[in-house]
Amino acid sequence: MTAATDPGDAFEALGDPNRRAIVELLRDGPRSVGSLAEAMPISRPAVSRHLRLLKEAGLVTTEAVGTRHLYRLHDDGIAAVQAYLLGVWGDAAGRFRLLAENTTDDARGR
Hints:
Largest sheet: 3 strands, antiparallel
CATH architecture: Orthogonal Bundle
Order of helices and strands: HHEHHEEHH
CATH superfamily: Winged helix-like DNA-binding domain superfamily/Winged helix DNA-binding domain
Strand content: 5-15%
Radius of gyration: 19 Å
Strand order of the largest sheet: 1-3-2
Distance between the termini: 49 Å
Structural class: alpha+beta
Number of strands: 3
Shape: elongated
CATH topology: Arc Repressor Mutant, subunit A
Low-confidence stretches: 1-5
């Protein structure tokens, strides 16, 4: 795994609520810094700093379109995070659901 797709870097980057909000906004498609700043309660320079950190973590990419830069989610970075979570958790949610469905009311204290 390259540094750009290291899930540790990605999780560190996602530790900030503003960066998570940016990722959520980019889920709907590419956006400029100005567009992101308008949708957030922080300044444009702050959005730029957060985007730089997200880019360094491999979660977003940028594309120059004329004089603007559009940011979008980076598929490889998102895939690395997803693969990490699947490796750690596997199908734990499915096993939990099966356990819950097969637990009697007596075992639940009812």
